[in-house]
Task: structure prediction
Amino acid sequence: MNTQQEETIVDETPNVQQPGTLLKQKREALGLSQKQVADRLRLRVAIIRNIEDNQFDSDLVATFTRGYLRSYAKAVGLSAAEVVEAYEVHYVIEPQEQKMQSFSKKTKRDQHDSRIMLITWVIVLVIIGMSSLWWWQNNQHNNLTSSSERSSLITEQTNPQSTSADPILDQLPTVSDLTVSNEVPAVEQAEEEESPVNDSRVEPILEAEPSITPATTENTPVNADESNLLSMTFSADCWIQVKDATGKTLSTGVKKAGQSINMRGETPISVILGAPEGVSVTFASEPVDLSGYTSGRVARFTLP
Result:
């Protein structure tokens, strides 16, 4: 509302006093100051001064202005209805048009807010769906990995039993070896009785006698070169498999708690431990760190 419109309204309604004038006259009649009224209403003195000067903020909603006027009128003993009526006569213009305009703006704003909320909900649902799918796939992958590791551990713990028996079987003499060794005395007796013609038959038999070689052990002499010496000490039962670069098996099978072994072979040496938490390993007199292997998991590594 501009000054020209206010002057036009005042000219058209000369018999009705403005609301601020009514309130100011009543306050002065009661001998009250603007500060006293402001303290009673818990308002700033500037607001009381603007009301008495009939300076109403056009940006302020009319409902708030009416509330200030009613409170001021009650504080000084004036009729609130009379003061509000004076305000509406002088300052409220075309209320219906203003109401329709505000309703139209509110409708447009509501439509805009509805579209924003719809887009927001769609984005949230997409994020939730993608997160759920990622979690499900990750969970399935972990389950498959755990199952395969358990199956591998069971297979490795089963196979060593048959593998560990192989060296023992290799050390036992075969039936043919026993037969040959038992036949040797008989052949020697036959040499004395038979003619030299039978000597040619005896010689192949004697040549078939297996040569006895000393059994190899896992322990290596202490005074040997320690550059590729692999030592293991077991604090718990553990299945192991150790192979060197040539594919030769240096040690395999279940080792008992309290047992210690030393091995040598061509590097790099591949090591598999069924229960790494129960084994202490040193290579070339240097300890091997096994803390990174989780308890219950098979440890696979290569030295050096």
